[in-house]
Write a structure and sequence with these properties.
It is a single chain. It is built from 1 helix and 3 strands. Strands 1-3-2 form a 3-stranded antiparallel beta sheet, with helices on one face. The protein is about 20% helix and about 15% strand. By secondary structure, the chain is of the alpha+beta class. It is globular and about 35 Å long. The two termini are about 15 Å apart.
């Protein structure tokens, strides 16, 4: 399972976060937790990924979180 969680307020990337964005980032994390529970993976575990910049293959210039789960995830990722 792979779900994108995207805030309504536009922030280009983590590199553009300022003190004024603390509320939107906190809300983004709380919503991610809710989505994980709704998808039935809240207890079994999941991974959150935030890509920042071209080397991370960030292709959408809007802060978002990839919620990945429903399977055993290895480390390192990829």
């Amino acid at each position: 399972m792979h779900v994108l969680v995207v805030p309504n307020q536009h922030v280009t990337s983590v590199n553009d976060l300022e003190e004024e964005h603390e509320g939107v980032v906190g809300h983004l994390m709380r919503v991610t937790r809710v989505v994980a529970r709704e998808q039935g993976i809240g207890d079994s575990g999941y991974r959150l990924v935030v890509n920042t910049g071209p080397d991370a293959m960030m292709t959408v210039p809007h802060l978002h979180v990839h919620l990945i789960g429903s399977r055993k995830l290895g480390w390192p990722p990829g």
